[in-house]
Amino acid sequence: MLRAPAAVYYGQGARASIGTAAASLGRRALVVVDPFLAKTPEFREALSGLDGAGVAVQIFSGVVPELPTDSVTAAAESARGFAPDVVVAYGGGSALDLGKLIALLLSCDGPLSDYYGENRVPHPVLPIVAVPTTAGTGSEATPVAVVSDPDRELKVGVSDPALIPRVAIVDPDLTIGAPPSVTAYSGIDAIVHCAESYTAGKRRPDWETRLPVFVGRNRMSSLLALEGLAAMGDALPLAVADGSNVEARGRMAWGSLLGGMAFGSGGTHLSHALQYPIGALTHTPHGMGTGMMLPYVLQACIETTTDRLAQIAGALGVATDRSERDDAQAAIDRLDEIGIAIGLPRTLAEIGLTRQQIPRVAELAAGVTRLVALADHEVTPAFLERILDAAFVGDRSRLTDTSTNG
Ligand SMILES: NC(=O)c1ccc[n+]([C@@H]2O[C@H](COP(=O)([O-])OP(=O)(O)OC[C@H]3O[C@@H](n4cnc5c(N)ncnc54)[C@H](O)[C@@H]3O)[C@@H](O)[C@H]2O)c1
Ligand SMILES: [Fe+2]
């Protein structure tokens, strides 16, 4: 199963196609841009490309971090008078998600909360050209946009194939300026997207009804996820250590695009379900939480996903010449090492979670049923608590026997 943009342009210099891509979809472009990037020469170049292609432009550069819902609604209202027929979203995941949500609100009546959850968007939305400057959320290729709703304890998502950008323009050079922490957290999240879609459970689709947005592991998502991991495994520490390493930036941009396409149909699972409450309680970035949880989640699921983890070891270049089980362990160890190399905190205690909060985090994560259902393991709050207990003190060996202990 593949859900993806109608066109994907990847490569150094691909940003030169922004004008023609937008012109192929409309004459009036609302350009949504990260406030920092709005001042860069590359963005001005993109604007002249739009002008050269005869596209009228209105710029919205007021992206508010974490996308509080009222900021999204206000952004859409400010654009309504311009009546755009295409949205160009340029920036990190926040700018891309805002572009998707503005396209939604200008095409369907609000409030935004009507569309929370999966498959709630009633008809196509304005076409979107997505240009990522981080590597990344993969948002340029996914059916997802994430917002913070002050009425909800956790961040909420709108997930619908209607939100998949029509054109993704992925130019790794645009990520060169991303600072080390943004590179680290968005980069490890891209690795988690690949690892989780590759280890998600397989579900038998009911072809006669509308398919869920995330259908579980499948042949197409597996292909993309493994290729993404092969591209990114060694590249992420290099890109964090030296942001001007063009080859590492290229591999990260490529891998995160593939990760977006992989999880856009396959889905993610427990690292993401656990990050939602962890992020809300500790106010830490999405990728920090998913990246920290991944080795613990995979360790807890090693018995039911050994074959896939062994394949991941191959993609990461750490396969042993011993057993499949040894390869699976080597994959988890390597993913943990990558986290250390990029400076992820080592324990949940370090990021400010308290031991007393663990049962509540487990309960909230267990309630993220669309993600939990995709794990290839039976999931109870007790199972999640064990994962959290191990991550709280930074000791994966506590999880070695989880599958036999229930
Ligand atoms: N839609 C999806 O499929 C999806 C998937 C995962 C995460 N997300 C969401 O994406 C958001 C995170 O996105 P992100 O990690 O890309 O970060 P971001 O968009 O929030 O940007 C983080 C910071 O990096 C800066 N920045 C971005 N690119 C830069 C560059 N090239 N040079 C210099 N500075 C740069 C921005 O100005 C900003 O200050 C979260 O809200 C998360 O929930 C969405
Ligand atoms: Fe993610």
Topology:
Blueprint: E1 7-10, H1 18-23, E2 28-33, H2 41-52, E3 56-60, H3 69-80, E4 86-91, H4 93-107, E5 117-118, E6 128-132, E7 144-147, E8 156-159, E9 167-170, H5 180-199, H6 219-232, H7 235-241, H8 246-266, H9 270-282, H10 286-300, H11 306-316, H12 324-341, H13 358-366, H14 369-372, H15 381-393
Parallel strand pairs: 1-9, 2-3, 2-4, 4-6, 5-8, 6-9
Antiparallel strand pairs: 7-8
Helix pairs in contact: 3-4, 5-6, 5-7, 5-8, 5-10, 6-8, 6-11, 7-8, 9-10, 9-13, 10-12, 10-15, 11-12, 13-15
The chain binds nicotinamide-adenine-dinucleotide and fe (ii) ion.
Bound molecules: nicotinamide-adenine-dinucleotide, fe (ii) ion
Low-confidence stretches: 402-406
Name given to the CATH architecture of the largest domain:
Up-down Bundle
Task: Work out the strand percent.
Answer: 5-15%
Query: Termini, distance in Å?
Result: 32 Å
- Spatial strand order of the main sheet: 1-9-6-4-2-3
- Quick one: how many beta strands? 9
- CATH topology annotation of the largest domain: Dehydroquinate synthase-like, alpha domain
The amount of helix comes to: 40-55%
Number of domains: 2
Overall spatial form: globular
Tally of individual helices: 15
